[in-house]
Amino acid sequence: MASSEENFKHMQISELHKVLADESHVVVDIRDPASFQSGHIPNAIHLSNESLPDFLRDADFDAPVVVCCYHGISSQQAAQFLISQDFTEVYSLDGGFTDWQLQYPDAVAR
Q1: 27, 77 in Cβ contact below 8 A?
Q2: Looking at residue 6, what is its pLDDT?
Q3: Is 52 left (phi over 0), alpha (psi -120 to 50) or beta?
Q4: Which of 40, 51, 59, 69 could bridge across to 44 with cysteines, CB 3.0–4.6 Å?
Q5: Domain contains 23
Q6: Parent domain of 97
Q7: Domain assignment present for 63
Q8: Which of 28, 65, 68, 69 is labelled catalytic?
Q9: Neighbour tally for 20: CB within 10 Å
Q10: Under 8 Å between Cβ of 79 and 67
């Protein structure tokens, strides 16, 4: 029997840059607090074990969510977790913040 479990999708850095302006996507950053403080994608939400309950309580489960980590590896597991929490559209950001900073150095919030 085939599994009906949904999976997250992948998003390229350039795709996120295009949709960021319309604020339709929620960006969550799962890096450590110091890394997040030193620079992050504009309007990103820092998501940690401590902030997760509040995020889940207040979230719009139908809004597209993009998960960002350092290189796009850890974000995949986090994205799948959000799918399991009934978010409908979740992306892992390929290349993570490292690639974002390389491609869009002027689009880093501090």
Answers
A1: no
A2: 78
A3: alpha
A4: 40
A5: yes
A6: 9-103
A7: yes
A8: 69
A9: 18
A10: yes
Whether residue 4 lies inside any domain: the answer is no
Question: What total of structural domains would you count in the chain?
Answer: 1
Q: What would the pLDDT profile of 31-63 be if each residue is shown by its tens digit? A: 999 999 999 999 999 999 999 999 999 999 999
**Sheet of 45-46: strands edge to edge?**
9-11, 90-93, 65-68, 26-29, 45-46
Give kind and range of the element (H or E) at residue 75: helix 74-84
Q: Which CATH number covers residue 68?
A: 3.40.250.10
Contact present, 92 and 55 (Cβ < 8 Å): no
SS3 category, 90: strand
What is the C-alpha separation between 107 and 103, in angstroms, rounded? 9
Q: Are 17 and 107 in contact (CB under 8 A)?
A: yes
Rg from Cα positions in the chain: 13
Q: Is 69 one of the annotated active-site residues of the chain?
A: yes
- Above 90 in pLDDT, residue 74? yes
